[in-house]
Amino acid sequence: MPLSAYLIVSGMLFAIGAFGVLARRNPLVMFMSIELMLNAVNLSFMAFASFLDSVEGWIFVFLVLTVAAAEVVVGLAIIVSIFRSRTSIDVDELNSLKG
User: Fold this and answer.
1) pLDDT tens across 43-98, in order?
2) In total, how many domains does the chain have?
3) Is residue 88 classed as helix, strand or coil in its secondary structure?
4) N or C: which end of the chain has fewer CB within 10 A?
5) Nearest to 1 by CA among 60, 50, 56, 41
6) The domain spanning residue 33 has which CATH number?
7) Number of helices followed by number of strands (H, E) in the chain
8) CB hemisphere CA count around 80 (13 angstroms)
9) Domain that holds residue 69
């Protein structure tokens, strides 16, 4: 398959993820959309690594997956603590994280 096919799919996945972050108010859906965007970036890294015969794409993918796992753990912990104190996790109603 040509490189452009992978990049088109990656761009479409990133656009779907960006729409999910901007349009939804549920933080769980927002986190899933962010994960979709990160996986779209990973797909483009792997496509370029395969096209250029380099290992740097693999290294970046490993780094992005590590950051994504940490983001999920911290984000879910924040969501659970907010849900325990407020019984609602609507993003529009959250102002408890303001300084």
Assistant:
1) 999 999 999 988 988 998 999 999 989 988 998 888 888 778 776 676 666 665 56
2) 1
3) coil
4) C
5) 50
6) 1.10.287.3510
7) 3, 0
8) 6
9) 3-89
Task: Round the CA-based radius of gyration of the chain to a whole number and report it.
Answer: 17
Distance CA 1, CA 66 (A): 28
Tokens representing 54 are 């380099």
Burial class (CB in 10 A: 0-12, 13-18, 19+), 93: exposed
- Give the contacts of 33 (CB within 8 A, at least 6 positions apart): 16, 17, 18, 19, 20, 21, 24
What tokens does 39 get? 């996986």
d(CA 88, CA 47): 41
